[in-house]
Design brief:
With 87 residues, this protein is an alpha+beta fold. It has one domain. The protein is 20% helix and 34% strand. The chain is built from 1 helix and 5 strands. It has a 3-stranded antiparallel β-sheet, with helices on one face. Strand 3 and strand 4 (55-59) form a beta hairpin. The two termini are 18 Å apart.
Length: 87
């Protein structure tokens, strides 16, 4: 399972959606990144593959950062998001 996480302006809680396949997660990451760069479309609706029917729409101008990381199923946890020297 892969998590795409968005940091939003003036929000302490990130918005995240999940994809089962790495290719789908990478494609969504690139789509969001391109939308931020071009400021188009104005609104972006995201759906979650893990929770059926879960949707969120974000205003692209409010997205500060997007990150992609793999959630490990074996431990129930996830790889540490962001960048660090620790594993």
């Amino acid at each position: 399972m892969y998590v795409i996480e968005l940091a939003l302006r003036m929000s302490p809680v990130p918005v995240s959606v999940q994809r089962k396949e790495q290719d789908a997660a990478e494609a969504l990451y690139q789509q969001i990144r391109q939308s931020i760069e071009q400021s188009q479309p104005r609104l972006l609706e995201l759906t979650c593959e893990k929770v059926e029917g879960k949707k969120v729409t974000v205003l692209i101008s409010e997205v500060l950062a997007v990150q992609l990381y793999e959630k490990t199923a074996a431990t129930g946890g996830s790889k540490r998001p962001g960048f660090s020297l620790d594993s």
